[in-house]
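Example record

One chain of 171 residues, shown exactly as stored in the release files.
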Amino acid sequence: MKGLEDDTQKIQNEDLNMNNEEKEILEQKQQILNNSGVLAAYEYFLRRLCKDGFPNGNVYEFAAQAVLKYEKKKQAEQFRKQTMAKSLAELQLNESLKAQIQVKNEGKQEGKNDKNKQEGKNDKNKSPQKVTKDQQDQKKEQNKKDQQQKGKEDKKDLKIQEKTDPKQKKK
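Predicted structure tokens for this chain:
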């Protein structure tokens, strides 16, 4: 009796080992199907078949079209994800660069303020206002505009004189 029980236990253990191996193989196959997208395409085809009904034409052509549509949708989705990831990375990079620039500008401004304070201490005897390049440029532009305006007024005066005194025109 013991021999028979031992034999049945060995057979059961072998079956369990085979079942475990088979389960591992099935899990690997399932994982391959999931990773490749075939399973998702098959599910999409079945949903389309339920939604649209059984086709009048060739079922294989319908299945091929459904799988192609699924592939296009999947590729478009992947492209969107990639572009979103790229744009997000660019935004983060831009923001970090802006922050670095702000820090540099603040440092420069602080340095300028320190220089201005030192110059102010050193230049107590000098004139209180210094003319900057921008102010000089503005003055030059204003002078040009004034000269142009003056030239226009002179031309108007000459025309008025010509109308009133025709003798000067002949000379």
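Notes: The first helix runs from residue 2 to 36.
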